[in-house]
Specification:
By secondary structure, the protein is mainly α. 54% of the residues lie in helices and 7% in strands. The protein has a three-stranded antiparallel sheet, with helices on one face. Strands 4-5 form a two-stranded parallel ribbon.
Length: 246
């Protein structure tokens, strides 16, 4: 990677995690770094703080924030989420309104069968576990989701902490699916599975017609981002959470 002036020099040696008001702080040479809006980098669980500390510790001569997905997500959760919760919940509902998993192919039969085997169980899970009943469509024809279902997505979003809600919306953006985001957050799927399900059509086409290097790189990038989100949700739900309310 070519470094530029936008990559600040690493000015610290030691990275640690310590208890702090409201949770666990990442410290650089004993000092807590701040977000772009000058909020201390304090996380609600110790595992999440350690996940972020590992990113800081893994930097070389310069700090490359593009290679620090958990840190960047924490900045959004700290700086933007507290005053944008309604908007974030609406974003998640919008992904539910156009959810990838609701649009089954009409042909070929092999693709339809694969979607039925892999996507339909997630639709059933959403109904059984989350009380969200999603309507299905065949082809590209838009299907309207019921107000009850979209209100249900908003309620689920509103019940989450700023850190969880921020990651839910990021996952929905990555997958094009609120269902996959919720399944990843709740442990129904891991990152690799969620990534695979979001790329089911592309995988089928690659198996049928082949795949160029650019498409393969995109798929690899998506899978890596999905694994990072899985690690975030796992760390956020691990023991050591500080008491908080949404």
């Amino acid at each position: 990677m070519a470094f530029t002036s936008t990559h600040p020099k690493r000015h610290y040696k030691d990275v640690a995690v310590s208890a702090a008001p409201g949770g666990y702080g990442v410290t650089l040479d004993g000092r807590v770094p701040r977000s772009p809006a000058a909020r201390p980098l304090v996380l609600p669980t110790e595992p999440l703080a350690r996940l972020i500390a590992d990113e800081w510790a893994g930097q070389g001569e310069r700090v490359v924030f593009a290679a620090m997905p958990a840190t960047r997500l924490a900045h959004v959760a700290l700086d933007a989420a507290p005053t944008a919760r309604v908007a974030l919940a609406e974003q998640l509902a919008d992904y539910g309104a156009h959810d990838l998993l609701c649009y089954f192919a009409e042909a070929p039969a092999a693709l339809v069968a694969r979607q039925e085997a892999r996507w339909a169980p997630l639709l059933a899970w959403a109904q059984d576990e989350l009380a969200l009943t999603f309507a299905r469509s065949a082809g590209v024809t838009h299907v309207e989701q019921s107000p009850e279902t979209l209100d249900g997505v908003r309620r689920l979003a509103a019940a989450e902490s700023d850190f969880s809600l921020t990651a839910l919306v990021a996952a929905a953006q990555l997958f094009g699916s609120a269902i996959l985001a919720l399944a990843l957050q709740r442990g129904r799927l891991n990152g690799a599975e969620a990534s695979e399900l979001s790329q089911l059509d592309e995988t089928f086409q690659a198996e049928t017609w082949g795949e160029d290097a650019e498409a393969a790189e995109r798929r690899g990038t998506l899978a890596g981002e999905a694994r990072a989100l899985e690690a975030w949700f796992r760390a956020l739900s691990s023991p050591g959470a500080a008491a908080s309310t949404p």
